[in-house]
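Quick log. Single chain, no ligands specified.
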Amino acid sequence: MLTRREMRRMCEMSKPIDWDKPLETVQHSPARLLHKLEGDSWPYPYVVLISPRDGGYEHVTFLDGHGDNGVIRIQNTPEAHEVWVNVYRNPLGGCVYGSNLYSSRERADREAHKPRRIACKKIVLREGEYDE
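-> predicted structure:
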């Protein structure tokens, strides 16, 4: 039986690359499409610049249409989404987060139960990120 991490990896590998959107390696180093070679005779027609996050040297690599060449694999940079959640005082002690997520601070303020609310927190969610 596959673990959650293995299943996630298989799903990520099956996603097609949108070459018009931001790219990164699976290790989260920035990548940029430089050129697509014309013709069907190229096994790796995508010329991509990789900029290592650790400050190493930038390098160019050739990738297939799935963003892979057997050594380096790229993916689209996950999109970030901001949501807001109201936090309320718990009558039994401590605090409790509200169960609703709001797309803006203004909407969270409108929907809040103001006398009990003690905070409004912004949460940034990135597609494909999971806490263990």
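The chain has a mean pLDDT of 83.
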